[in-house]
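Run: sequence + iron/sulfur cluster -> complex structure.
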Amino acid sequence: MTKITNDFSDPDSVIGMCGVFCGGCPAYQKTCYGCRSASKGPLQKRKSKWKCKKRICIIENQLNHCGECIKLSCVLRKPLEKRYLQNYNIDLTKNCHQIRTLGSHSWIQSQKQKFTCPYCTLPFSPYDQHCLICSPLEKN
Ligand code: SF4
Ligand code: SF4
Ligand SMILES: [Zn+2]
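>> structure
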């Protein structure tokens, strides 16, 4: 059964169903409740998730994420996977496999560690790929 949670204090609320780390997204808790929430409350300014075919597919198949699906990686995922790999160096298929093999708790810890600056110890956005405070010139 797909885990839907509208509670930010639930650790699993940061796990995007397609393998995106919602917890690292700048919109999370600001303009979005996260992929795993079904809340249409006032914070949910981003509307795209309701039409996301991957999210719909996962819920229809009663899975928690694509890593539980024998069709990984299916055609529905291909454009998103390509975009994440090219633009952000994030491998969403690998993420899905890791969520399954590591378990959600360890995967969340690994993502937090990956997106925390080793110099200033502040979190940075996965979409920036590195800390903009400590290495702003590295961004290309
Ligand atoms: S792309 Fe779809 S499945 Fe992935 S995090 Fe966004 S809403 Fe969820
Ligand atoms: S891998 Fe594809 S078919 Fe399987 S749940 Fe994810 S989106 Fe649906
Ligand atoms: Zn830093």
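>> summary
Residues 54, 57-58, 61, 63, 66, 69, 71-72, 74, 76-77 surround iron/sulfur cluster (ligand 2) (CB under 6 Å). The CA atoms of residues 29 and 58 lie 22 Å apart.
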